[in-house]
Every structure is written in C-alpha cells, then in structure tokens.
Design brief:
The chain is mainly alpha-helical. The chain has a domain of 70 residues. Helices cover 53% and strands 0% of the residues. Helix 1 packs antiparallel against helix 3. The longest helix has 32 residues. The protein is elongated and about 120 Å long.
Length: 115
C-alpha cells in the first residue's frame, strides 16, 4: 500500500512529462479525435495494471505467509493426557409440606345465608 502512495503520483508525473508522446504514439483513441481522450486511456490502463499488479502481489504475499505458517516445523505440539477427576454428589432430597389447604371456589358461593 505504501508503494502505491508513491507510484500513482509518479505515473501522473510521467504522463504530464510525456503527454505529447503518449497522445501521438500510445493513445488507443488517436484515430478518433472527437473523443478528446488526449492519452487518458493510456493513463487509465496504466493505473488499472498497477492495481492488478498490487492485488496479485498482495495475494502472493498472503499465500506465502500462509504456507510458511503451515509448513513451519520449528514448533512442536505435545498433547499430554491429564486425568479427569469427577466428584459424584449425593442426590438432593426435597420435602414438600402443605402449609395451606386448598380452597374451593364453590364453597364461597354456595353456603347458607348469613344472619
């Protein structure tokens, strides 16, 4: 990424310095002057190729780092079995006591009249 910061301004500088040469010799649209391309097609193609080159370089460096990590044999792994201790607790016992007697709603409605 840091290289791109320096390369793109240099591409523009190169384009401005050699503008006449690029328009006369390297422009793809020199046969169509009504487009007023003035070599910008060449500049766009160069920037696109720079982006493509940067993507390929990034992919290549990623793959090389990945392969280095996978193939790195300096570290060795050792998996030692550790004993597992399990403590079995006694079953808890629950006691249920009825503190309230169940009420029946019918008893509240149907009763002898109160005097």
């Amino acid at each position: 990424m840091l290289v791109k910061v320096w390369v793109i301004p240099l591409l523009y500088l190169d384009f401005e310095i050699r503008r006449d040469y690029i328009i006369n010799n390297l422009c793809e649209n020199k046969n169509r002057p009504q487009m007023h391309c003035d070599g910008k097609c060449y500049l766009a193609k160069r920037i696109a190729s720079l982006d493509e080159q940067e993507k390929r370089q990034a992919e290549k460096s990623y793959m090389s780092r990945l392969i280095d990590q996978v193939m790195d044999r300096r570290t060795s792994f050792s998996f030692n079995r550790q004993p597992v201790l399990v403590e079995i607790l006694p079953q808890p016992r629950f006691f249920v006591r009825e503190f309230f007697t169940p009420r029946v709603a019918v008893d509240d409605i149907f009763h002898p009249p109160l005097v």
